Amino acid sequence: MSESNAFTLAGLATQSACAALLALLLARFHRRHRRAYLREWSLAWWAFCLAQAGALYAFARIGQVPPGDWDRLLATAVSQIGAYWHAAWLLFGAFSLSTGWAQSRRGGRAILGALALLGAVSTLLYAFSPESATQRVFVRVGVRSLALALAMIAAGAVLWRLHRGTTITGPRFVSGALFASGAHQLLTAAQTLGLFELPVPQALGYVDVAMIGVLGLATVVWLLEEEHHRLTDASRQIERLAFFDVVTGLPNRKLFLDRLRAAIERGTPAAQPAALFFLDLDHFKRVNDTYGHDVGDLLLAAVADRLLHSVREGDTVGRLGGDEFTVLLPGIRTPEEADPVARHLLERFRAPLRVGEQSLFVGASIGISLYPVHGEEPMSLLRKADTAMYRAKDAGRGCHFVYADEMSATTRERLALETELRSELLETQLVLHFQPIVRSGTGEITGAEALVRWQHPDRGLLAPAAFLAVAEATGASEAISRWVLRAGCATVASWRRRFQSDLRISVNLTARAFENPQLAEMVFDVLAETGLPAEALELEITETMALLSSGDPVSMLGRLRARGARVAVDDFGIGYSSLSYLRELPIQTVKLDSSFIRDLGRRPEDSRIVGAMIQLAHGLGMEVVAEGVEEEEQMAILEMLYCDEMQGYLFSKPLPAPEFEALMEAAAPFRSARSPSPDPAAR
Questions:
Q1: pLDDT of residue 359
Q2: Residues 420, 458: contact at Cβ < 8 Å?
Q3: Can you give the pLDDT at residue 223?
Q4: Do 53 and 79 fall into the same domain?
Q5: Long-range contact set of residues 41-47: C-beta below 8 Å, sequence gap at least 24
Q6: Which of 220-229, 250-259, 361-370 has the lowest mean pLDDT?
Q7: How far apart are CA 607 and CA 588, in angstroms?
Q8: Are residues 455 and 362 in the same domain?
Q9: 281 is in which domain, residue-wise?
Q10: How far, in Å, CA of 328 to CA of 263, rounded?
Q11: Which of 403, 437, 457 finishes a domain?
């Protein structure tokens, strides 16, 4: 064998080995990262390895057998097919890299099949014509080199375009190697056309070896660099998750407290005063229950954006969790300086927030603590701002309070109540008082409103105002409502049997009980258990509960009404008073709030307002009960205005069950000495 042939064979063998190493390297990265282009480029270099191995065998057989020998033709065909597949898989990888999609298997098989046919045809063409050596070399080498050149240049261009704006150098290194390999293949194609002669043609094989080596090194640099960037990005993401809220992008509790601590440490208290605002959204749970948590998250993001655009550049806004936000405002020394800022924020939240395709209203309550007036430790300032926020909630929401020392005592008492309200002993300490409801004109007792009291072992008898708000916040109010309903129905059922009367019981529902979708079933179970007829039960709700319910109050109240239970709207006239909506509800009774009754007989306009409300209710087919009747003059005016029923201290305060029973036994009607009974026919 000549020295030139040995040189060529060694070059082909080295190319095949290097291509196999590069294919193995890419396959290893593919197993780790599961990228489609890595798999396809790994296959491309396996195909190149096959092509060079076939060329090695075919070249080694030259001169040893006749030109038409079938084993050399087969090796040549393998070499041709491998080269075309190499070009195809390079392009498949470029496609996957640029689009993020893998080449479809069906389409890929069709393309590879067509290229295999092309490789076989190019091998057989001129194979049996010794005089056509030039044409044979062009078909087998020139066309193949041209295809490889175009594939490599295309892959390099895709890679360059995708990474031209990045700081990663590896992809540009690989692009340059692909461009160089493509240029080398173009030179090879040009040489087969006889356009020029290289001085040392046998060195071309080692140029290919060098190109494969450069490609392998560049690919390793690229993939290792990408892995480093992924690790860096993951580290940054972990850090962001640790210090920033995912939903709003604001500093979370940890970062906000760190910034608060840093702000305190930067200067002396006298030189660096600050205000800490603790902001909690009002009725946010209703948004979540009505529209779902996805909309709730969008609303929180909108709230964060509004806060950021409502404070100064140097202020810090954070989200502690849930619907709680904090704002650190340096430079504010006194409550008088904090007041206009808080008013501005509350005013901003009176405007609707755009969430998707809808506008939502959400109010806020704000608690404020001042550094260094209320402390010099971040957690202490946060707790005191939180305490002031709860004071704002208790005051009716939508307002702000600056922390005061007496609030801490109130908070401790609230926490103690929360703990006791969760106790299993609570129901053993609850008692019912009953206030009579009397018929206008006759003065007979037609019903009783059940009012819960807490016989606290240490604090004595507690009225609902002392614990129901806390019970509503902790979720205990629903259990209390069930107990009141069961105890009230059982008591009135026994009185109906004893006194042979049609006495009815009125029970107030808490907001949580009213929101329970199983309310109707629970009521029917209690009626069946106590034996009280459904028509003897009247459930009282407020206008606000009915209008802001997240469920379907019309359907739920309709189920109650269909079984005979009655529904009353309590405190009528002081809520939203959406008459068009109330008309849709199956309501039998409206209870006029005591604020309308208090000045009857003193201000003529009050009588006109009450008269109009009674006429309106009667026009809608509803009965009217006046609450808070304390004077005979009020009773007389209500009778003349054709009010159906009344209750108040004029008749009786709420009484324990034994005293109410004694009142029933006396059977003395409540009548006004100054007013005649109205004629029902005159209504």
A1: 82
A2: no
A3: 73
A4: yes
A5: 41/89, 41/90, 41/93, 43/85, 43/89, 44/85, 44/86, 44/87, 44/88, 44/89, 44/90, 44/92, 44/93, 45/19, 45/20, 45/86, 45/212, 46/19, 46/20, 47/82, 47/83, 47/85, 47/86, 47/89
A6: 220-229
A7: 23
A8: no
A9: 253-403
A10: 9
A11: 403
In a domain, 413, yes or no: no
Give burial (CB, 10 Å; 0-12/13-18/19+) of 613.
Answer: buried
Are residues 670 and 438 in contact, defined by beta-carbon separation less than 8 angstroms?
Answer: yes
Is 651 part of a structural domain of the chain? yes
* DSSP element (H, E) containing 32: helix 3-33
Q: What is the DSSP string of 516-580?
A: -TTHHHHHHHHHHHHT--GGGEEEEEEHHHHHS-SS-HHHHHHHHHHTT-EEEEEEETSS---HH
Per-residue model confidence as pLDDT tens digits over 471-529: 776 667 788 888 899 999 999 999 999 988 899 999 988 877 887 888 889 999 999 99
CA dihedral 11, 12, 15, 17 (to 10 degrees): -110
Number of Cβ within 10 Å of residue 151's Cβ equals 26
pLDDT band at 134 (very low <50, low <70, confident <90, very high): low
pLDDT, tens digit, 9 for 90 and up, residues 397-407: 889 999 887 77
Distance of alpha carbon 506 from alpha carbon 448, whole angstroms? 6
Mean pLDDT for all residues in the chain: 81
Task: Work out the pLDDT band at 268, boundaries 50, 70, 90.
Answer: low
Answer whether residue 582 shows pLDDT above 80: no
Cα dihedral angle (510, 512, 516, 522), rounded to 10 degrees?
-40
Residue 672: pLDDT over 50: no
pLDDT of residue 517: 80
Short-list 586, 569, 667, CA closest to 625: 569
Number of domains in the chain: 3
Q: Is 281 within 8 Å of 364 (Cβ atoms)?
A: yes
Domain assignment present for residue 283? The answer is yes
Give 514-546 pLDDT, tens digit per residue.
878 888 899 999 999 999 999 999 999 887 676
219 and 356: one domain? no
What CA–CA distance (Å, rounded) separates 34 from 359?
Answer: 44
Q: How many CB atoms lie within 10 A of CB 379?
A: 11
369, part of any domain: yes
| Cβ contact 480:471 at 8 Å | yes
CATH number of the domain bearing residue 269? 3.30.70.270
What's the whole-number mean pLDDT along residues 119-137?
A: 72
The average pLDDT across 107-131 equals 80
Asked if residue 42 and residue 174 are part of one domain, the reply reads yes
Pair 108, 191 in one domain: yes
For β-strands 645-646 and 430-439, DSSP reports them as antiparallel
- Regarding whether 510 and 379 lie in a shared domain, the answer is no
Same domain, 542 and 646: yes
Asked if 119 and 173 count as a contact pair (C-beta separation under 8 A), the reply is: no
Q: In the listed set 340, 368, 403, which residue is the last one of a domain according to the structure?
A: 403
Residues 6+ apart with CB under 8 A from 241: none
- pLDDT grade, residue 680 (50/70/90)? very low
- pTM (two decimals): 0.48
Q: Residue 177 above 50 pLDDT?
A: yes
Strands annotated E in 283-429: 316-321, 324-330, 353-355, 358-360, 363-371, 400-402
| Shared-domain flag, residues 284 and 379 | yes
**Dist. CA 308–CA 325, nearest whole Å:** 11
pLDDT at 436 over 90: yes
More confident residue, 98 or 31: 31
Q: What angle do CA 458, 463, 464 make, to 5 degrees?
A: 120
Is the CB of residue 111 less than 8 Å from the CB of residue 104?
no
Helices (H), 61-104: 70-99
Structure tokens at 450: 């059940």
Helix (H, G, I), strand (E, B) or coil at 615: helix
Residue with tokens 């908070």: 411
